[in-house]
Amino acid sequence: MDKERVHEVVREGYADVARQEPRPGGPTETQATSCCGGVPDTARANTAARIGYSEEEITGAAADANLGLGCGNPTALASLKPGETVVDLGSGAGFDALLSAERLGPEGRFIGVDMTPEMLERARTNAVNAGYARTVEFREGFIENLPVASDTVDVVISNCVINLSPDKAQVFREAFRVLKPGGRLAVSDIVLSEPLPEIVADLAMSWIACIGGALTEEAYLGFMREAGFENIEFTRKPAGPLLTPDLKDPMWKAAVEIIGEARIDELADTIFSYSITAAKK
Q1: pLDDT tens-digit profile of 36-92?
Q2: In order of start, what are the domains of the chain with their CATH numbers?
Q3: In this structure, are strands 109-114 and 85-89 parallel, antiparallel, or unpaired?
Q4: Which residues of the chain form beta strands (DSSP E)?
Q5: DSSP codes, 21-47
Q6: Orientation angle between helical segments 117-130 and 95-104, nearest 10 degrees
Q7: Is the N end or the C end of the chain the one with fewer CB atoms within 10 Å?
Q8: Nearest 5 degrees, angle CA 173-CA 174-CA 178?
Q9: Closest CA to 67 of 21, 12, 5
Q10: Measuring CA to CA, which residue among 9, 2, 3 is closest to residue 206?
Q11: pLDDT at 24
């Protein structure tokens, strides 16, 4: 898919997630699941706990902003300090924003950037309800062209969003641009040990599920280095269940028929959730 089509597909998918009210008990046919979890109440809490959020974080003031999305906890990875300025690439309904605001304190500032109006609306409401409207703001924009001034940010975070971009090299250039000298990057994302077959990578649903746009480790970290980041460190864990196809979707069904279920299972072993930190010197 070309860049405009990728943005369109991703925006539509996440708008559906933002519009839906959670229902207890698990997903229904009309409820979208996405990068990298589900909308229902039970899936929200379970996903957040599985990817590294504490019970206090899940049940605290940020709870209403938890849509069960993500593949890690970049707020903990970033070791945020009071008074810092943080930018979130793909801030969604504001879960990481509200958790960060508590750590940043009254002198800190959090800027969430998202291209989906429905997510921005929910995020702004959540910030007001949680009492962080003064220190947290959300801006509409693309992570490939951040609406943030250069050299003004202490930390850039992102939770399972950069893989959704059709131009990841530009995303890292933008993250580097907005960071102050000595600033740092902390991201959770889906990374592959080998490229996906083209038919899977091209599926619209696989992009929304954080799989279709994922890069190999070599390519992903390579773009970070080319942007200027140093001291890159990471850990990873398997994330194969993300490749579980939805056979009710015609595109997934066609892919399974062509590739075969056995090959799909093999591909699941190539998908990992990475927690990555880096610095701008």
Answers
A1: 555 455 566 677 877 888 888 888 878 888 887 888 899 999 999 999 999 999 999
A2: 3-26+34-191+217-229+275-279 (3.40.50.150)
A3: parallel
A4: 33-34, 37-38, 85-89, 109-114, 136-140, 153-159, 179-192, 215-216, 230-238, 271-279
A5: PP-TTS--TTS-EETTEESSHHHHHHH
A6: 40
A7: C
A8: 120
A9: 21
A10: 9
A11: 45
Q: Is 44 exposed, middle or buried (0-12, 13-18, 19+ CB in 10 A)?
A: buried
Q: Using one digit for the tens of pLDDT, what is the confidence trace for 256-281?
A: 787 787 887 888 899 999 999 999 99
pLDDT of residue 275: 96
Residues 6-9: contacts with CB within 8 Å, 24+ apart?
Answer: 6/164, 6/165, 6/166, 6/207, 6/213, 7/115, 7/142, 7/166, 9/204, 9/207, 9/208
Tell which residue, 156, 187, 214, 164, has the closest CA to residue 14. 164
How high is the pLDDT of residue 29?
Answer: 36
Q: Please choose, from the candidates 204, 223, 221, the residue with its C-alpha nearest in 3D space to the C-alpha of residue 213.
A: 204
Written as six digits, the tokens of 182 are: 């000595």
Count of residues making up the chain: 281
